Amino acid sequence: MKILNSIISFIKLAAGAVCVFFTGLLCGINPKNELKYRKGCAKFLTSLVANDIIIEGEVDKNANLLIGNHTNNLDIALMETVIPEKLIWVAKKELGEIPVIKYMVTKTDMILVDRSNKRSVLTMMKEIKERTNRGFKVVLFPEGTRNQKNPAKMINWKNGTKAVAEKLNLKVQPFVIINLPYAFKKHPFRIEKQTLKVIFLPSFNPKENPDWFEETKAKMQNILDKEYQKL
Fold this sequence. Notes:
alpha/beta, two-stranded antiparallel ribbon, 9 strands
């Protein structure tokens, strides 16, 4: 049975890859409808791993910087599914070099950054300001990369997120994703749908609390501890 589930899971992965490929292609051909294509692909990808999605808290319509934990590539698809409005993602510049897939970032107001280049970081700040001035929400993962070691324990946060929030005076709303990486099993590989949860914390202005960065991480870690204890 596990072998059969593995075969089915690899077929699902292939279907997901095809979905991403054609979404990129459509974004390149008709960028005016990119949001429709992105949201459709995100819902399909999320359906591969989610039996149900539980949402706690509410998205603050006035928050313009969302920050959350990052444990899987499908974190992006999940958040695109949960939040109907257009989200702006900050991605590494290499994604803009992948044939066809690059259209999903270059034709959709996404922001590409070369973290090793200081000028690129300054350009990122300017682009984030431009996007938020246009009313979009920007999403950042303070961990800077996927945490593949232990989804219940966040890895160190990068100071870039703190600098963005404070220098651009953005209203911040944290979120916590629960249980998504456990949809992917090993030995043998298979996908087992899970009940996923997204918890939105209250939003705030960083100017009101100089210790917001450390305190927010502690609050999010506390939520992770409690949620994974239940599981």
